[in-house]
Amino acid sequence: MTNTPFPDGFLWGGATAANQIEGAYDADGKGLSVQDVMPRGISGPRSETPTADNLKLVGIDHYHRYAEDIALFAEMGFGVYRFSIAWSRIFPKGDETEPNEAGLAFYERILDELEKHGIEPLVTISHYETPLHLAEQYGGWTNRELIGFYERYARTLFERFGSRVKYWLTFNEINSLLHAPFMSGGIPIPEGGVPEQQLYQAMHHELVASARATRIAREVAPEAKVGCMVLSMPIYPLTPSPDDAVAVMEADHGNLVYGDVHTRGAYPGYFLRTLREKGIELDITDQDRDDLTHTVDFVSFSYYMSIAETADPAKKVAGEGNIMGGVSNPTLEASEWGWQIDPVGLRLVLNQFWDRWQKPLFIVENGLGARDQLVEVDGEKTVVDDYRIAYLNDHLVQVGEAIEDGVEVLGYTSWGCIDIVSASTAQLSKRYGFIYVDRGDDGTGSLDRYRKKSFGWYADVIRSNGASL
Ligand code: BGP
């Protein structure tokens, strides 16, 4: 197809995460993860034990319906499917020495289905799914021992699946740890919050673990391509004042450091300044420094929104619904959850990351959460989600612009390619899918799947390799 900027072999697909899709939270030996005690998503308190109102315990029952779901992905023409492996299915408590064979067998079945349909797997090793035992008995990633546990887990996956899975992501949105310590780092949050020293030490441990996974992959699965995964968010100065530009630079540095470490293999100077100014002394061994030099093959990221930033304390009102700080941009519309919609921002962040790191880029999350209404059209149940088609179309047009700018983009996996439980709200009513799932926030529903209008639209985009945009 000539009239498209997307290269031959561009990987079109969709993305999900184990804790948001699978359900079967305690099936076949699976241990609890932090998600199983987070019935209210990012902002709500954790529960002592799993509670019936936690929609993730059942999810959309993908654990039993995976063959039907993957067949629907294949019907859209997916070339790639991003999913996560639930750490506590493989190591139920996280600190065992031997894996849970039934957990490995489930993901063998997933890979069998993908292979049957010729869909490339893209596996997230840890997607906000730290085993609860590691959180409660070790303090999560504040504890250096987690590096060893993660290393054993990653090695097990590479040894078992390394010949079948080409693309791997080490941690989902590794730059969210400072903002969501329990969800992202399995760090119990005491009254008064987690001391910054511990948060930054946890960040260091995850970065070392990510680099060790990369080193192991080179050894055990030489064909594998390992990427880091960050939450991307272009930041605009609220005014053209130089002070606002400095505020943007400093906020940007807070996110760019993760990609810098993964691609350059060492902490940049601006980060060392941050530590000095915060009075934080990281415990970094010579082995850590050597580990960090094992850099990634590609950089992947999620993209939903952009934010603004200002140096003026009087204007520093955090953007609604955004866990990563910043202020609202008065020139942009927001979604119902306050996420500011900015397709051009995707072109900007693609250029920024490419110019900075010169590594192939993979967009592994992008989508619009919305309260879809199931209706009947010509006797078929569906959702007329023209708003989602418009959002995705506008964003993909900007991916095409970035490719014309010379940016190397490996692929695009739309987030929540089937309705699943939202991470931030822990609800099902914030729907992203091309496929509607009949289950409500009250947990009732048939769990039947229905193709939305965007299902056919995306199939056309994939079939035409982007020419239909
Ligand atoms: C990202 C997570 C995903 C997904 C997405 C959408 O931060 O990596 O797991 O949940 O956000 O967010 P939400 O589900 O909160 O609307």
Automatic annotation (TrEMBL):
Keyword Hydrolase among UniProt keywords: yes
* Gene Ontology MF terms in the entry: beta-glucosidase activity
**Active-site residue numbers:** 365 (nucleophile)
Which UniProt key words apply to this protein? Glycosidase, Hydrolase
PROSITE patterns linked to this entry: GLYCOSYL_HYDROL_F1_1, GLYCOSYL_HYDROL_F1_2
Hydrolase as a keyword? Answer: yes
Gene Ontology annotations of biological process type: carbohydrate catabolic process
Gene Ontology cellular-component terms listed: cytosol
- Cited PANTHER family: 6-PHOSPHO-BETA-GLUCOSIDASE ASCB-RELATED, GLYCOSYL HYDROLASE
Assigned protein family: Belongs to the glycosyl hydrolase 1 family.
Q: What is this protein called?
A: 6-phospho-beta-glucosidase
